[in-house]
Write a structure and sequence with these properties.
The complex is a heterodimer of chains A (421) and B (82).
Chain A (H helix, E strand, L loop, with lengths): L7 E9 L6 H10 L5 E2 L12 E2 L12 H4 L4 H16 L17 E7 L4 H14 L8 H5 L3 H10 L4 E3 L7 H14 L5 E8 L4 H9 L10 H4 L15 E9 H6 L6 E10 L12 H14 L6 E5 L6 H15 L7 E3 L2 H4 L6 H15 L1 E2 L22 E2 L7 E8 L3 E8 L2
Parallel strand pairs in A: 4-5, 4-6, 9-10, 9-13
Antiparallel strand pairs in A: 1-7, 1-8, 2-3, 6-7, 8-14, 11-12, 13-14
Chain B lengths: L4 H16 L12 H4 L4 H15 L5 H4 L5 H11 L2
Classes of the chains: A alpha/beta (421), B mainly alpha (82).
Protein name (chain A): 3-oxoacyl-[acyl-carrier-protein] synthase 2
InterPro entries (chain A): 3-oxoacyl-ACP_synth-2, Beta-ketoacyl_synthase, Ketoacyl_synth_C, Ketoacyl_synth_N, PKS_Beta-ketoAc_synthase_dom, Thiolase-like
Family (chain A): Belongs to the thiolase-like superfamily. Beta-ketoacyl-ACP synthases family.
């Protein structure tokens, strides 16, 4: 089984997001151009400079039984739901081994988070100060460790080929999927459940990101606050949730007659080595990731029909991404339908790469690019064919490629490529 | 006023139900916390802390390992409650 460079395909998708409790409802809301951003009405939010966020549409506590939920950080709860949905969507009927079409030793779990169990950490510190030593939950450590979502998905699905958690801030989810593709390609696994998750809508992260001047303070207009590529964009809006996919070797998928959404072609990676939070403004760092993708996979700009942009709605970042696409793909960018789904979901940080990969894969499968909402006036420097207004049909015939860009604080650049079947 | 054996069992059943989701009627004297009631070593710490509070008793960490069954815990609390 130690073959290399095997073809990898996507056979399942799952998500729980501010737009819907599963992948179909999230996708439908994206196509309809709905915003998941709301005014935070919690008491703790009243005095914060940023009082808007994209909270989850379906509370995980309404699905996961309480005895299990109370031992899982919110980020792990999201990941478990997205992973289980992707698993069932791929046609598996039970845990690995119990479903005999998958050997537990050939199943991996790669689930990332940008920040980890930050709400557990902060809540338990409050417990320590207010209620004392004895009341701190003995589950605190396994709840807050950043690998907890991956570990819990591994336990839940009986994935024994390896459970991993790459951490690269807002590129984490994409890096997890890239890592999973390599696990299958190198022969370490036949099937890997991969994605990202985040749950950091809590006073401290909200204030900390706000004090970095990274977030939109458009408290009076929640639906219009996340506006990638618009001239009036002024920062990202925090979102929460998770997206996961099932990746599988093409042979394994064919042997069990699985439905295939798309081929996972591969990844391109680079690091800016420029600044801990600001993107390299010329787009050179991102361009290096795109160039790395082209060299790794042999794709050409002519094939790329759709880009799910990282586009968080920050003044600098959105333009650096477009500059990088132009630098590497030149005039081919003209025929790429560029969508910024964060205009609707907000920015799920480490969950973004997971949710946006689900969106990219469904875009290829349905040959539809979701819209970018809130573009009143497209930034003239965003020199690309941004999908505004309504969802747009992608070319109906022949194979097409979609890219999913993800970049993280620290200068992490990850680009994933998928091809239609 | 000290709790009776019956009251302690009833209280423990509620605690185990809250923490592990086991129906209260299944929490019986002869049941093992780990083998029968899905209370692992971490959840056992929660059970102990909740029981200490409810029955005004101190259960030192060294004694917790001897509480294998619900009956062990009931007996311990009966003997040591304040």
């Amino acid at each position: 089984m130690n073959s290399t460079n095997r073809t990898v395909v996507v056979t399942g998708v799952g998500a729980t997001t501010p737009l819907g409790g599963d992948a179909p409802s999230t996708w439908e809301a994206m196509l309809a151009g709905r915003s998941g951003v709301r005014l935070l009405e919690e008491e703790w939010a009243a005095e914060l400079p940023v009082r808007i966020a994209a909270k989850i549409a379906v509370e995980p506590g309404t699905i996961i039984p309480r005895p299990q939920a109370r031992k899982l950080d919110r980020s792990a709860q999201f990941a478990l739901l997205a992973a289980r949905e992707a698993w069932a969507d791929a046609g598996f009927t039970a845990r690995a081994g119990e479903d005999s079409s998958i050997d537990p030793d050939r199943l991996g779990a790669v689930v990332a988070s940008g920040i980890g169990g930050v709400t557990t950490l902060l809540d338990q510190y409050d417990v320590l100060r207010e209620k004392g030593v004895r009341k701190v939950s003995p589950h605190t450590v396994p709840m807050l460790m950043p690998n907890s979502p991956a570990a819990n998905v591994s336990i839940d699905l009986n994935a024994r080929a390896g459970a991993h958690t790459p951490v690269s801030a807002c590129a984490s989810g994409a890096e997890a999927i890239g890592y999973a593709i390599e696990m299958i390609r190198s022969g370490r696994a036949d099937v890997v459940v991969a994605g990202g998750t985040e749950a950091s809508i809590h006073p401290l992260p909200m204030v900390a990101f706000g004090n970095m001047m990274a977030m939109s303070k458009n408290n009076d207009d929640p639906h219009g606050a996340s506006r990638p590529f618009d001239v009036d964009r002024n920062g990202f809006v925090m979102g929460e949730g998770s997206g996961a996919i099932v990746l599988e070797s093409a042979e394994h998928a064919a042997a069990r007659g699985a439905r295939v959404y798309a081929q996972a072609i591969g990844q391109g990676i680079s690091a800016d080595a420029h600044h801990i939070t600001q993107p390299e403004p010329s787009g050179n760092g991102i361009g290096n990731a795109l160039q790395n993708l082209v060299e790794n996979t042999g794709i050409s700009g002519a094939e790329v029909a759709h880009v799910n942009a990282h586009a968080t709605s920050t003044p600098q970042g959105d333009l650096a991404e477009i500059k990088a696409l132009r630098k590497v793909f030149g005039d081919d960018v003209d025929h790429m339908a560029v969508s910024a789904t964060k205009s609707m979901t907000g920015h799920l940080l480490g969950g973004a790469g997971g949710v946006e990969t689900v969106a990219s894969v469904l875009a290829l499968y349905h040959r539809l690019a979701p819209p970018t909402i809130n573009i009143g006036s497209l930034d003239p420097e965003a020199d690309a064919d941004v999908v505004t207004g309504e969802a747009r049909a992608l070319p109906a015939e022949g194979p097409i490629v979609a890219l999913n860009d993800s970049f993280g604080f620290g200068g992490h650049n990850v680009v994933l490529a998928f091809r239609s079947i | 006023m000290a709790a009776t054996q019956e009251e302690i069992l009833e209280g423990l059943a509620e605690i185990v139900n809250e923490i592990a989701g086991i129906p209260t009627e299944d929490v019986l004297l002869d049941k093992s916390f780990t083998d029968d009631l899905d209370v692992d070593s971490l959840s056992m710490v929660e059970v102990v802390v909740a029981a200490e509070e409810r029955f005004d008793v101190k259960i030192p960490d060294d004694d917790v390992k001897n509480l294998k069954t619900v009956g062990d815990a009931v007996e311990y609390i009966l003997k040591h409650q304040g």
